[in-house]
Design goal:
Elements: H1 8-12, H2 18-21, E1 31-36, E2 40-45, E3 54-58, H3 71-92, E4 96-100, E5 110-116, H4 140-154, H5 164-173
Antiparallel strand pairs: 1-2, 2-3, 3-5, 4-5
Helix pairs in contact: 3-4
Length: 174
């Protein structure tokens, strides 16, 4: 049986929250930034979960739920989520886009954007996300090529091309 994280209370208060502590990097062991807005950053994920799988992260104070946002923040957050979703739809042309705002393993407001395709693992059902990152990774050249295209579509501009040192760091640390 799975349990809530042992440090759940601390995490809900932002103590040890990886999304708060990581800052706003262009790339991390989890993904490559494809959007940097006033309210959010979005990262195309390195994990080979699904083509175009992206996480949009709230970048204001630490909060757990969208209900903690005031009206202007909520409009900003969801507007930026939709900006990223539209870019994903434009690039990948999925049959359907899933929007999942969970926070069950890390209580920091974020939304998973998951393009759905004819060949995905559970057509017509919720996508089988796991709290554990899979070992398989998107090939680096494909990841960076897609990130550059998405950055252009979201208005962020050019993605810094990963140097071999950055790639080695991401692969070895991830």
């Amino acid at each position: 049986m799975t349990e809530w994280p042992r440090n759940w209370d601390e995490l809900t208060h932002g103590i040890g929250c990886e999304m708060c502590e990581n800052g706003r990097p262009d790339a991390s062991r989890y993904g490559v930034r494809v959007h940097a807005g006033r309210y959010t950053d979005a990262y195309l994920q390195r994990a080979d979960v699904q083509r175009g799988y992206t996480v949009v992260i709230w970048r204001g104070r630490h909060i757990n739920e969208p209900t903690e946002l005031d009206d202007a923040e909520a409009a900003g957050y969801w507007g930026e989520v939709l900006t990223v979703a539209r870019a994903l739809i434009s690039l990948y042309e999925p049959l359907k886009m899933n929007y999942e705002t969970l926070g069950n393993s890390l209580p920091h407001l974020h939304t998973h954007l998951i393009p759905r395709f004819t060949d995905d693992p559970r057509p017509g059902q919720p996508f089988p996300l796991s709290a554990q990152q899979p070992d398989a990774r998107i090939p680096e050249d494909e990841l960076w090529s897609d990130a550059r295209a998405l950055r252009k579509l979201t208005g962020l501009g050019e993605t810094p091309r990963a140097t071999q040192d950055q790639r080695d760091y991401q692969v070895n640390r991830g």
